[in-house]
Amino acid sequence: MDIPNTPHHHHSQFQFHSESSSTITTTTTTTKRPKHHHHQQQHDQHDQEHVLIAGLPDHIAQLCLSSINPSLLFSISHSWRRLIYSPSFPPFFSLYAILSAPKSHSFMEFHTFDPISHTWRILPRPPPIRHLLLRHPSFLSRSLSVQSISAAGSLVLLAATTHNLSPALPRPLIFHPLSATWSFGPMLAAPRRWCALGALGPTVYVASGIGAHFSIHVARSLEKWDVRNPNAAVWEKMTDLKDGRFSREAIDAVGWRQKLCMVNVKGDAAKEGAVYDVAEDAWKEMPEGMLYGWRGPVAAMEEEVMYVVDEAKGVLRRYLAEEDSWEEILENERFKGAEQLVAEKGKLCVVSASGISVVDVAASPPRIIPVLLPEGFEPVAVHVLPRMPVGH
């Protein structure tokens, strides 16, 4: 993912510029050229604009170009620009966001930010679903969660609330970026208003939570589902939690080293932690140091390196498993009030009251890149997924 630091606006106000490499100039003369010669020129120009590399077959040229940064290809020629959005070119990563209007009760849109063309685009309209509520008129101070996760290259919406405070999604709603299509996953045995939601590889895990009413059976439950087979798959029941204390909020179950790590309360408050070991199908106590430093949203890079943003202090930290402690990386005002953290391809995306910030933790020192949102929107959630093809 390569998010630029140049501000851009809603939809596609970025203009394609003509490239000198794809333009054929002719000399003006007083002699009229034969009509067939003019048609031949147009044909030659059309062929030249579609040739990837002169003198090479396209399939060989694609192999050569696929190793080059797509942002460089985009700026050189129209034919290379078309190539990077074609099914045959390795898809680069883009930012996907659920956006809402400030103080709106229910208005939401699904957008993607293309880091190559620097534009926001609206995703195709999802199939009809129940009315999702962000804020209830009777509880204006409380935000209602819309829980989503990325797994197997797809965006999965799994839990939300309706106007009567009931679960809005009886089954997962899935967006597939490479085909720009929506589909549904298998029915949930007990739809949730909130839960602990996490993923390890292509498998999505749902733990605890609450439906229309509290149920100890749901509050202790753990189920999993493989996203790669949405039509034929079912939710598989795993070992229950020891109690229902993780049903209080919509929380993240962070996939890390073949384990799911989660706490029962968000933010800087005192909390309890639990770790689910996938190989053993067993719940264990969270290490003391991990729990102590869990003071905001947490994410794991490639499911190996865990990061946290201290939402009160605006500090980014990295977990050192061998020492069971958190190492400070940097502090920034934009991190204060952090609500979500996503880790992918050497970069972190922080969603906070300041908007979306991309942190290049692979750089030394780490670099912070603000992402300007479409005018009139604020982020509900963000994900990093393969780019959506042009034309959708």
Automatic annotation (TrEMBL):
Which species is this record about? Phaseolus vulgaris (Kidney bean)
Q: Where is this region: Disordered?
A: 1-48
What domain of life? Eukaryota
Do you know which InterPro entries this protein is assigned to?
Kelch-typ_b-propeller
Which residue stretches does the UniProt record annotate as biased composition, category Low complexity?
Answer: 13-31
Q: What is this protein called?
A: F-box domain-containing protein
